[in-house]
Design a protein that fits this description.
The protein is α+β, with helices and mostly antiparallel strands. It is built from 4 helices and 12 strands, in the order αααββββββββββββα. The strands form 2 sheets. A 6-stranded antiparallel beta barrel has the order 1-2-5-4-3-12. The longest helix is centred in the first third of the chain and has 73 residues.
């Protein structure tokens, strides 16, 4: 008896054919009565769920990495923007602090008590002398503003110096810290008279011709005495900072801290005699 064609096929092929036929039969039954296979379908879906999730992991990882990079870049940009805003804010605060300090100083200068015989002419320091060895600054007020040679200049804290040159719109001020400048002073506590001389630096003065037996102390305030008529009396000059007795002579070596601000004196006051100012106005009025 000759075997059938189906029997002569390989075993694997026969199994595949059987499975295919069974699958077709099941699909036909499923199309006719779907409710029969619902339990099997639900079980198979539940069994495949972990496989579905594992297949999505690469996509999740890609999206997470992309989002993480974008978040880091966004944070970096935001951080740079905030730093830029902070720098701009700090710069504005510095400018505001400078303006507030200038306003406070101007208020202090304008509130300075003035003797009745003087007018206070507000001037601005616009430069320094070309000779760095001299303590000289240039003011923006000159002869047209009533400034004259010999007039005393002060700030809100004390005496700065005297006018030595006058031009139509500017003038030159010799500070009392110059080595060639001196001021007659009085020790406010005792009334003792002495001479304060500049040392060529803006932070220190020297008190001369004070005997070792004199009653002077560290912290004593020195005011102008008006002796000689060059500088009006009663203005602060400085305060005694250090006293040293030497064996060479009978005088003491005394260091004085200036009362006025010689480092950052942007605005100053020129003391102008009222009588001289009126005479100048009268002369200008007749000549015009």
């Amino acid at each position: 008896m000759t075997p059938s064609i189906f029997a002569r096929q390989p075993l694997a092929l026969r199994k595949a054919a059987i499975v295919l036929i069974v699958a077709l039969i099941l699909m036909w039954f499923d199309s006719k009565n779907p409710e029969w296979f619902n339990p099997v379908r639900n079980t198979s879906h539940a069994a495949m769920q972990p496989i579905y999730e594992l297949s999505l992991l690469p996509s999740y990882a890609k999206h997470w990495a992309s989002g993480s990079l974008q978040s880091k870049e966004a944070l970096r940009r935001e951080n740079m923007q905030l730093k830029s805003q902070l720098i701009h804010a700090q710069a504005k605060l510095q400018q505001q602090d400078y303006i507030l300090a200038q306003n406070a100083r101007l208020q202090g200068i304008l509130s300075t008590t003035k003797p009745e015989q003087f007018e206070l002419n507000l001037a601005q320091v616009i430069g320094t002398d070309t000779n760095l060895l001299r303590q000289i600054v240039v003011l923006n007020k000159g002869a047209q503003d009533g400034v004259q040679v010999g007039q005393t200049v002060i700030d809100e804290d004390g005496i700065l110096g005297q006018i030595i040159n006058v031009y139509p719109n500017t003038s030159r001020l010799l500070l009392i810290t110059d080595e060639q400048q001196s001021v007659a002073v009085t020790v406010k506590r005792t009334g003792q008279r002495a001479i304060v001389t500049g040392q060529g630096i803006p932070t220190s003065l020297s008190l001369n011709y004070v005997f070792k037996t004199s009653d002077v102390r560290v912290g004593d305030e020195l005011v102008s005495s008006g002796l000689g008529g060059r500088i009006p009396a009663g203005y602060r000059v400085g305060r005694i900072a250090h006293i040293k007795d030497t064996q060479a002579d009978n005088f003491r070596s005394i260091e004085v801290t200036p009362a006025a601000n010689f480092i950052d004196n942007a605005y100053v006051l020129v003391l102008q005699d009222k009588l001289i100012g009126k005479n100048n106005l009268g002369t200008n009025g007749n000549g015009s």
